Description:
Radius of gyration of chain B: 17 Å
Oligomer: heterodimer
Number of strands of chain A: 8
Largest interface: A-B, 22 and 15 residues
Order of helices and strands of chain B: HHEEHEHEHHHHEE
Distance between the termini of chain B: 27 Å
Number of helices of chain B: 8
Distance between the termini of chain A: 25 Å
Number of strands of chain B: 6
CATH class of chain B: Alpha Beta
Helix content of chain B: 25-40%
Shape of chain B: globular
Number of domains of chain B: 1
Radius of gyration of chain A: 15 Å
Structural class of chain B: alpha+beta
CATH superfamily of chain B: Thiolase/Chalcone synthase
Order of helices and strands of chain A: HEEEEEEEE
Shape of chain A: globular
Number of helices of chain A: 1
Strand order of the largest sheet of chain B: 3-6-5-4
Strand content of chain B: 5-15%
Helix content of chain A: under 10%
Amino acid sequence: MTPLPDGLLPRPTPLTQPFWEGCLAGELRLQSCDSCGHYRFFPSEACPHCGTAEHTWRAVSPRGRIYSWIVIHRAPDPAWADEVPYTVVVVRLEVPGDPLLTGVLVDCPAEEIAADLPVRVEFERMNEAIALLRWRPDVG
Amino acid sequence: MATICRAHANLNPRAQMGARTMSMDDYLASPWIADPFRVFDCCLMSDGACAVLVTDAERARDLRHRPVYLMAGGIGTGPANRGGMWGNFWHDHTECYARYMAERLYADAGVGPEDINLAQLYDCFTYSVIVQLEDFGFCAKGEGGPFCAEGRIAIGRELPVNTNGGLLSEAYIHGLNGVFELVEQLRGDAGARQVKNAEIGLATAGGASPNGSAVILRQ
Lengths: 140, 219
């Protein structure tokens, strides 16, 4: 898509910086809880499963399955005026903790969108600090 | 769900949409916001206010209006969500906050869903009513849609819901207008909207989000 203006892009924080570095490197990196081993998203101070703060950032498989989706028809901001309608998916990763991630779905005809459809993440660079998640059908 | 709320609003002199009817054709013609939600699946934008006076039963006896009594009230969310309002940590998106607090709410009140005569279910979106119907025990998971489609939520039917028109058609006063309506109904002051045998009712806030609250009131 047309790169979004900087003002609309996420701003990395100390907590989220490792995630955004991964995106720039083309890698999906999530926090893995040092106590129970669950992965989580979005980045958070405490593990939602066991509450432990200690974690290690690790790269995970870029593959997941569609959990749900919506099709945005009304642009949330004029910056998306040329993009609507577009589909936002919630994707479940098959790693411990079953984390859910969101992102725009690309290159998938509407009639093929379905729960459990395998998808693969890719990253669309917006500026020197941010690359956003996109998901596409995983056919391989 | 949307058309029934509108029909209720048409009986309500306070309602923002009181003068406008909505047929199923009107509903289906309303533009998509985010499929599966059309404009008429989303609540109103409103500037307004309402108030409820809460006191003990002793004082209430001497006040001008007939008191309505609080049987139970609760606020709840699931353990993983850790107090957050929205979140990916909510593991099953077919469930709402009621999954974690309804049982305790009913136990505190000493009633079950079968004892509830009417319910003001927070309808920020039509979906939030569907999930609350299920998770407050009025029907099984997955049956909330048919429950509405069969009209069982209309005044005069099995479980009148949002008898004021709800956030969808009365006004978006964040669910307090649902408490207000429930009090009117339990007092017998709801006029054309009056639910017969309104003795015990439920009013909620939340439903599209992983946390929420609810009260059970009685005559």
